[in-house]
Amino acid sequence: MMMSNLCVPLLLITLTMAADAQWDLQNGHTDANLRGIVNVSSGVVWASGTNGTVIQSTDEGATWRKCAPVPGAEKLDFRGIQAWDDKVAIVMSAGTGDDSRLYKTTDSCKSWKLVFINPDKEGFWDTLHRVSKNELYILGDPVDGKFSLFVSTDSGQTWSKSNDAGLESGPGGGAFAASNTSLTSVGRWIFFGGAGVPAARIYYSDADCPKGTGPVCWGSVATAMATGTSASGIFSIAGKASGRKPSAANTVLVAVGGTYNRAGETKGTATYSLDGGRTWTMASIPPHGYLSCVAYDAASGAWIAVGTNGTDVSSDDGRTWRGVGSDATISDNWNALSLPFAVGPKGRIGKLKRGMAWGGSK
Q1: Any domain includes 357
Q2: Sign of CA dihedral 340, 184, 287, 50
Q3: Element (H, E) at 11
Q4: In-domain check, residue 19
Q5: Number of Cβ within a 10 Å radius of residue 309
Q6: 25 vs 114, 334, 350, 354, CA distance in Å?
């Protein structure tokens, strides 16, 4: 159908407004590709990305400032960041071998200290996750057929490599560093996912340990998520506790992903579990394409997921999804979430508009 010239500018404006309708855009004063984001609370937010970039806000994202450069990290890609408050944070770079590193600041990022370097020459770190005040995990790609899992119990000062049973990766196994969310925790239970052939698998802690092993063992289960290429699999996993008594059995989990370089494909992009990761069911109405990050928004009772072509929302624990204000352009291109914040390419930062009616159930 032919449109008048008068309608074309109006249509373009409408599409742009729709794309950003759910996010208030903020100025991070950087053009880095941002993939790490952590909302600490009390207005403190940290973000990280390419070229050794770390930025911080202490007023809920109203203003952002660049942190002091991390010595020797000018070419590193900071894919993950965790923080305790406005003064203390730890940032993870992703790369092969010693390009995977951790740096920590204790003085509001005026200075940085190198605290850990990947000891595996063939390793590649994917996710840095804080489980509790002092306990942190690093998930890395398999080395010698087994996922690399590093643990710290002293707030990231020292690290040890796990030798837990059940971390064997199988053919094509690996994880993704797209959003620093390929590993998550709910209470004391830990879950992670990634790629694999013939199926992308999800791993869960607290499996029954074989006699003579332990104390921590892992189980894994195949999913019907996208597989078959190095760009396919589970890119992000998030969870929530349901019921009054915390247990693995009443933990709800949602995982998203797909095929990164075929972002418009909907098949194999979202799955959910209602029993702590033991069984998984594919979404009956999938997201509108590849997604790199998912998070549960307790304020609205909805699951929010983002990717290179927009935002999707589920209000029924991952069973069905709907795209929200997406136009498959840079105007709605996101990498990672720490709600209510999202980050993306070229320094994009968004803050979720709290008036949005997702229609979820808490």
Answers
A1: no
A2: positive
A3: helix 7-19
A4: yes
A5: 21
A6: 32, 12, 4, 14
Q: For the chain, 362 residues long, give each residue's pLDDT as a single digit of tens.
A: 333 333 333 323 333 334 346 899 999 999 999 999 999 999 999 999 999 999 999 999 999 999 999 999 999 999 999 999 999 999 999 999 999 999 999 999 999 999 999 999 999 999 999 999 999 999 999 999 999 999 999 999 999 999 998 999 989 999 999 999 999 999 889 999 999 999 999 999 976 777 666 667 899 999 999 999 999 999 999 999 886 666 667 899 999 999 999 999 999 999 999 999 999 999 999 999 999 999 999 999 999 999 998 899 999 999 999 998 644 444 579 999 999 999 999 999 999 987 655 554 43
pTM of structure? 0.91
CATH code for the domain in which residue 164 is found: 2.130.10.10
| CA–CA gap between residue 342 and residue 348 (Å, rounded) | 8
Q: Decide: residue 282, CB within 10 A, 0-12 exposed, 13-18 middle, 19+ buried.
A: middle
Contact 35, 345 (CB under 8 A): no
Q: Does 239 reside within a domain?
A: yes
User: Cα–Cα distance between 317 and 360 in angstroms, integer?
Assistant: 9
Query: Does residue 161 form part of some domain?
Result: yes
Range of the domain at 326: 7-352
Handedness of CA 194, 196, 200, 203 (dihedral sign): negative
How many domains does the chain fold into?
Answer: 1
Region label for 233, one of left (φ > 0), alpha (ψ between -120 and 50) or beta (otherwise): left
Residues 286, 271: Cα–Cα separation, whole Å: 9
